[in-house]
Design brief:
463 residues; 7-stranded mixed β-sheet; two-stranded antiparallel ribbon
Length: 463
């Protein structure tokens, strides 16, 4: 019986499992987006790998990446001419400056739909991972474009930054250990010392532009956080601190103009719909110097440049929203509140009324107990008249006016399809459920039924 049991069991050797695992990993790698992006297909590399990934698209691949060398009697265009034509086609699609917010005497913030390499500024802010080995994204593109000279300069800058940190820590070691209230002060200092040997979120590494762009004087690599490092609140605060710290350091270096892409997107995982407001608010606060005790007004221009039209559109809408909070002529308020403020009048109260209010005589009212004895009378007197009062129905959004001029605002809130549960814009829709104990009478009017609802049991009677 034992022999029969082992013969019936199927046994897989380790070689089969390793081969199977290897094929699964290869397929996952080949179909991964970052892997296909890192192939540099447009530069003519790894074409055979592309044929393996897309075997049924040989004709399209040949049309895209290979020159047609057949003798058709007609000479084709050269590669350089084709590239120039493609670049011109792409440039025609750019809309360039899409939105502009000007803070008088302080500076401006721009949203530009263009290639960031073609823009001119004092400094280009580039997002970067802490180990300076990005697998893809804008940081990887800049490092490849800058070449070995840029990488060497970055490594030297990182070493100098870490050396300065360690020297400062060693200089103030005794003060830190003595001032620390905890017993394990030495252990805490060792952890701080080890942490100072690596780059932290918000650090900036400066370098020359090298071969990246001739229109930029300085490159600033910013160490970025990831969106999954904590919950939504923590990740947004990390992004805010990181960007504000970068702008503060660049402002101290007397830099006047900065260009940057959507630094929070891509491998860092932030959604432009949420991160755009954070970045633009920090830009405004940097230009106005709201958080600094000794203001430095060196930065006067910050431009967000991106090739993607949808990203630029999101940033333009976010800039419009931020401008309504900071620009006086764009601030809006509800129309009822505005007309209430405009029509305010000073009322003079007669002296006899003031004398009556100053009296300390107690005003007594009749007091009733809370036990409901006559339910029908209580329903008709206490519940039915107040069943559909305004406070129980959600009102539509108010009409917005400019706070300064009183004219209708170009920005209005979106409409509400339903003001209250199961009630449409007709307010009393008979065909829908949800209107408890209400019917249409013989004259077409809404009437309350005599049947008592459960509402009266939980309602406090009028006293």
């Amino acid at each position: 019986m034992l022999r029969f049991f082992f013969m019936g069991k199927r046994y897989f050797g380790s070689s089969y499992l390793t081969k199977r695992l290897k094929t699964i990993n290869e397929r996952a790698l080949k179909y991964h987006i970052d892997y296909t992006k890192s192939l540099d297909i447009l530069e003519g590399k790894n074409r055979s790998v592309m044929k393996e990934i897309f075997p049924n698209m040989k004709s399209e691949i040949n049309d895209m990446f290979f020159l047609n060398n057949k003798d058709n009697g007609e000479k084709g265009l050269l590669e350089e001419d084709m590239e120039i034509l493609d670049i011109n086609k792409i440039k025609d699609k750019y809309e360039y400056e899409m939105k502009n917010m000007t803070l008088e005497e302080f500076g401006n913030i721009k949203i530009i739909h263009n290639d960031i390499i073609d823009e001119e500024a004092d400094c280009m802010l580039i997002p970067m991972v802490s180990n300076f080995i990005p697998m893809s994204g804008f940081g990887s593109f800049i490092l490849n474009k800058g070449g070995p000279e840029l990488v060497k300069e970055i490594i030297m800058s990182i070493k100098n930054l870490i050396k300065r940190r360690i020297d400062i820590l060693n200089e103030h070691k005794d003060e830190y250990v003595q001032s620390s209230l905890e017993i394990n002060g030495e252990q805490k200092f060792k952890e701080l010392y080890e942490g100072s040997k690596t780059l932290q979120i918000g650090d900036i590494i400066l370098s020359k532009p090298h071969n990246v762009s001739k229109k930029v004087k300085l490159l600033a690599f910013l160490i970025m956080p990831y969106v999954w490092q904590g919950n939504t609140y923590i990740s947004s605060n990390k992004l805010r601190y990181c960007f504000s710290n970068a702008l503060k350091q660049l402002n101290e270096l007397c830099i006047s103009s900065i260009i940057l892409p959507d630094i929070s997107a891509g491998i860092y995982g932030y959604n432009p719909n949420q991160s755009s407001n954070i970045l633009l608010e920090e830009c405004v606060e940097t230009l106005l110097q709201l958080k600094s005790t000794i203001p430095l007004y060196n930065i006067n221009s910050i431009s967000f440049v991106d090739k993607d039209y949808n990203t630029c559109k999101i940033y333009s809408e976010a800039l419009e929203e931020v401008s309504r909070n900071y620009l006086p002529h764009k601030k809006v308020m509800p129309a009822p509140k505005y007309w209430n403020m405009v029509n305010r009048r000073l009322l003079e109260i007669p002296s006899n009324v003031i004398y009556f209010c100053r009296r300390h005589n107690k005003i007594s009212f009749k007091k009733y107990h809370g036990i409901i004895r006559r339910k029908y009378k209580n329903y008709y007197s206490n519940i039915r008249p107040f069943k559909w009062r305004a406070s129980r129905v959600l009102e539509p959004y108010p009409f917005l006016l400019y706070k300064k001029s009183g004219e209708p605002s170009s920005y209005q809130y979106g409409f509400k399809t339903n003001y209250y549960k199961d009630i449409s814009h007709t307010l009393y829709n008979i065909n829908k459920k949800g209107l408890v104990n209400i019917r249409v009478g013989s004259r077409g009017k809404l009437q309350a039924l005599k049947k008592i609802s459960n509402l009266c049991l939980d309602t406090k009677p009028r006293l």
